[in-house]
Amino acid sequence: MRGLLAIIIVFFVHVLQAQPVHNPMLQWKAGDRMQQLSSKQLHWTDSPQLHTQFSIVNTQTTASTLLIKTPNVWQVQLSSQSARTGKLQSSVISRNEPVINRTVPHYQPHFLVELQPGDTAQIHIALSAGFSIYQKSPLQVEVLQQDQFEQTDRDRHFWQGMFLGVILVMALYNLFLFFSVKDTSYLHYVLSIAGIGLYFAYYYGFGIEHMWPNSPRWDTWSYTIIVPFTSLARLWFTRTYLNTPVLLPRTNALLTLLNILMSGTLLIGIGTYVLNIDWLAPLVTIIGILNTLILVLMLVAGIDAYNRNYKPALYFITANALLVAGAILFIFREMGLAGDNWFTRYFVQVGVVVQVVLFALGLASRYNQTRQALEEQRLEKERIALETEKEKKQLIEEQKIQLQLQIEAQTLSLRNQNEKLQELNSLKDKLFSVITHDLRNPLATMQSFLKLLTEHHEKLSEAEKQKLMAEAQDSLDHLNRLLFHLLQWSKSQMNLLAFQPEQLDTRESLEKCVRILHLQAHLKKITIETDVDNPCPLHADQQMIDFILRNLLSNAIKFSHMQGHILLKAWVAQQHTYISIQDSGIGISADVVNEILTTHVGATRRGTAKERGTGLGLLISREFIEKHGGQLFIESHPGSGTLMTIAIPLKPKPQGIDTQV
């Protein structure tokens, strides 16, 4: 970068010394280094051609080879006639031919004239504009010695080549940055400085001499295509660098309008080139006006963005200030609105170089910041990756533990299901046992009694007939109870019983149960005593609580001895209604109590008077109690009676009960 700055400083020193000498005259004497003829009568009229003439006198004692530089128009014809010999020489330079075919291979027309000592040459020049753009060319004729021309041309190649080299290097450098950071600001800036480089290559003849030597017509139209393209790139760069769509919406609207206008101008330039339509002069004027507006708007946008606390805008203003000033002067000179001097010719290049260097430094700093940000992002990604890997390992461990817990839970669930299946299988066996044994026995007994009554009716006494009929009635009653219990049990298993709790009176429920079973107790001369608190509310399903009470009281009667005593009690405590039935019967062993409270298999045994049971009553009663959210408690010892107590919540919460039939 230091070497680049040194080259730029040397370039500035050169352009400061490259001011042309203006000394209008119509006669040149050999020995002068350079003179410029600027005749006021040289101006374009309606005629497509322009003529001028002057004389050259060689006052030296030796022959001189001179070069006459003519205006840069489409075609120039120069005639030279020696006053001493009368010899007439004529040559033509046309822009329609490659530069290499000219006598002096230079982008501007130059003619060689040789003068002997003391000789005078009469020079006649005929200019043909050809295209409207050349009517804007300065009508100046310069006479130079050959060594002076060669030195000037070497300086042009060296210094302008150095300038274009700086442009090329910076364009490639920023293009590399674009591919590195993928920031479109770099791409727009590369297009902008590439367009500037192409324009100055065209302006100083590098294009027609080296880049497109066989395309003279393209060289004529290149201004109307290269400059609009460069201006569009400037607009794009301004939008992306200053972020005008967000920060400066109004300025962005103006940039968009200029973008549309300049795009249209570019398309017109391309169209006129393809169709060979000469709209060059008005296009140059329009391009100059639009380009001036763009440069001014760029500077205004930078100032506006800086006033909105956008810090990069200060850098944008500094980098563009000299370029905008120099470019406007250069445009005015090209449009004929300003004179041809050092400031109007070279100040724009000074601004370009300053802008290129400043933007290169700024974008390099931005690139370094971007790299630092990317490095931080990379480190952050690595940190996140490590944390993610750690979290993955932790998650895998947690998943292993969770899976182990799930396996254990599923194993436990399968074990429970297996136990339930075993219980259901036992229940099924019990059901089939009841059906095949308990149902078959009463039916067989009834069949035997009825057969005796029908076949031996005449042989049986009246007492025997009554006994057989009583036995048949007992079998029928037992069968009826068994079928009723089976029906209740099956409905309970299939959730077909509607659970409809309501507010009941405990005393009424117990008295109704006692009335129903009074005959059964009377046959065994058992007394039943009730002790019910007042009041004693009961929140339960009427049918279910009646079944529970009948079953418990019936069991108490069945397993009580003759002339036994049964006590029914009911009270309210701890948000529950308690009902207990205590008998003085044969009692229950601990194993049977545990079986009644924990299994799904009913237990059956005969009562004290050989009464038969179904084995399903207590099982169904327990399920009905659980549906109320209650509990069944049993206290008993063999030979000392049994105390059965149920606890029903005052507002029960049924467990898994479908209250709809």
TrEMBL record:
Transmembrane segments: 158-179, 186-206, 221-242, 254-273, 279-301, 313-332, 344-364
SMART domains: HATPase_c, HisKA
One GO molecular-function entry: phosphorelay sensor kinase activity
EC number(s) on file: 2.7.13.3
SUPFAM superfamilies the record matches: ATPase domain of HSP90 chaperone/DNA topoisomerase II/histidine kinase (SSF55874), Homodimeric domain of signal transducing histidine kinase (SSF47384), MFS general substrate transporter (SSF103473)
Gene3D superfamilies: 1.10.287.130, Histidine kinase-like ATPase, C-terminal domain
Catalytic activity: ATP + protein L-histidine = ADP + protein N-phospho-L-histidine
Name of this protein: histidine kinase
Organism, as annotated: Phnomibacter ginsenosidimutans
Organism classification: Bacteria, Pseudomonadati, Bacteroidota, Chitinophagia, Chitinophagales
